[in-house]
Amino acid sequence: MRYQALRPEIAVDAEIDDIPAAAPTQLRSQRGLIYLGICLVLIGLNLRTVFSSFSAVLPEITSDAGLPGWAVVVLTTVPVTLLGVFAPLAPVLARRFGAERVLLGAMAVLTAGLLLRPTEVPGAGHLPTLLAGTAACGAAIALCNVLLPGVVKRDFPHRLGLMGGLYTTAICASAALGAGFTYPVFAATGQWTSALWSWAVPAGVVLLLFLPLAIRQHPVRHQAVRGGVNVWRSAVAWQVTLFMVLQAMMSFSVFAWLAPILRDRGIEGGTAGLIVSVSIVLQMLGSLFAPALATRFKDQRMINTVVALMTGGGFALSIFGPTELIWIWTGLLGLGQGSLTAVALTMIMVRTRDAHTAAHLSGMMQGVGYGVGSVGTLLVGQLHQATGGFTAAGVLFLVVGALAAFFGYRAGRNKFV
Predict the structure, then answer these.
(1) Cis peptide before 79 (omega within 30 of 0)
(2) Exposed/middle/buried for 89, CB within 10 Å: 0-12, 13-18, 19+?
(3) How far apart are CA 204 and CA 213, in angstroms?
(4) By three-state DSSP, how is residue 302 classified?
(5) 72-130: per-residue pLDDT in tens?
(6) Are 18-225 and 228-417 in the same CATH fold?
(7) Is residue 196 within 8 Å of 75, Cβ to Cβ?
(8) Which of 111, 272, 397, 401 is spaced 20 to 30 Å from 258 by Cα?
(9) What stretches pass through the bilayer (predicted)?
(10) Spatial separation of the C-alpha atoms in residues 196 and 178, rounded to whole Å
């Protein structure tokens, strides 16, 4: 049993190559450390609402704003693609401005993007701002995705398990909140614009809370020192990365398309949002227990294969299965997806021997995983546009699930990058 692979000193850290080493956040008291922890968790609580809130009212947006088919596909694909595109930029900005100020800037961009998204441009409609606001949100979330783990590791070395669990749970909870509360806000106000604008409020509150702490920091110029294993030339690294790509294809397709799929099957909007929210909550349970189970064994071939097939099968059954059992299908999907995401990320730790290799593998997985993984939402959108339904998407997820099982089996072997 390789618990040493998960020890805190090799937790993934975007600042690990910095010379001099990044200093802890400058705080005035122990209360300041608690305040920082609360802010980091609250940042995590805003990192997925942009995906699930849009899908919760997608039919209303499409109808009212008169969105063409290509625009729907782009709006569900671009933010995921940008997670991969902007991920490599985060360490560069952190070396120049400090991780705290980059996180503050990212939250400012996220808040502005959420405010811009539903705004109507006279004479041009909603499409330009939907595109610009969604892109801004995707770029901001990419920076936060990369920098949050390193700040947690750096400032909470003795509470890494607690803080890591809190902020990752917060990220998952943000998707559940976006799925569960967006349609009720629409139903109460009668405006999809109000439903989307409402998510700028929590982002703006976190921005204000984090502002005094971030501007107090005095960033030091850092240089990046490269060395160690070249993960791009490692067969094991590519197997792990392709496993990540395939799980990302399914994960973000859940956020972008599960609610529209359920509504296409005749389920009322509020109920569809609740089903998606519960499915995402079940993802949290899977993400809590799967890594502990995976690390009990020398290799992870079996668990990687099982959770990949659960996810692909659950997604397909949500499309093909009887609607009377829809809670079971989406529950299976939730447990499978949460476990799949968690074990894919666990591969970073168990397939590497040191912190530098883990950090570089993480960068490779995020850049390629999110960038190529966005093809999942793109394909679902294009298949829906071409066929007028989601049957083809169900077949797609069976194929993706099978491929994820294959590469998960390969990545799960007891080999190292």
Answers:
(1) no
(2) middle
(3) 15
(4) helix
(5) 999 999 888 998 889 888 888 988 888 899 999 999 999 999 999 999 998 888 999 99
(6) yes
(7) no
(8) 111
(9) 33-58, 70-90, 102-118, 130-148, 160-183, 195-215, 236-259, 271-290, 302-320, 326-350, 362-383, 389-409
(10) 9
* Helices (H) then strands (E): counts for the chain: 17, 2
Degrees, nearest 5: CA angle 372-92-247: 25
User: Do the Cβ atoms of 65 and 75 come closer than 8 Å?
Assistant: no
Q: Which amino acid is at 42?
A: L
d(CA 296, CA 279): 26
Q: Any residues with CB less than 8 A from the CB of 178 and at least 6 apart, and which?
A: 48, 49, 50, 51, 52, 53, 56, 199
Q: What does the DSSP 8-state code read for residue 297?
A: S
Is-contact 247 311, C-beta < 8 A? yes
Q: Tell me which residue of 134, 146, 156 sits closest to 49, measured CA to CA.
A: 134
Nearest 5°: the CA angle 344, 348, 350 is 100
| Residue 190 CA: distances (Å) to CA of 8, 11, 183, 197 | 48, 46, 10, 13
8 Å CB contact between 117 and 194: no
Q: Give the range with max mean pLDDT: 157-161, 167-171, 197-201.
A: 197-201
Highest mean pLDDT: which range of 16-30, 55-69, 140-154, 224-238: 55-69
The whole model's pTM is what?
0.86
- Produce one character per residue of 360-382: b if its CB has 16 or more CB atoms within 10 Å, e if not: bbbbbbbbbbbbbbbbbbbbbbb
Q: Does domain 228-417 sit in CATH 3.40.50.150?
A: no
The DSSP bridge partners found for residue 121 are: 125
Tell me what the mean pLDDT of segment 173-184 comes to: 92
C-alpha–C-alpha distance, residues 354 and 334, integer Å: 32
Chain position carrying tokens 């618990």: 3
Domain boundaries, the chain: 18-225, 228-417
CA dist 313 and 319 (Å) reads 10
Q: How large is the C-alpha radius of gyration of the chain?
A: 20
CATH value of 18-225 in 1.10.530.10, 3.90.228.20, 1.20.1250.20, 3.40.50.150: 1.20.1250.20
Element (H, E) at 296: none
Intra-chain end-to-end CA distance of the chain, in Å = 19
Here the tokens at position 35 are 């305040």
Could you report the per-residue pLDDT of 23-75, keeping only the tens digit for each? 667 776 778 889 999 999 999 999 999 999 999 999 999 999 989 989 999 99
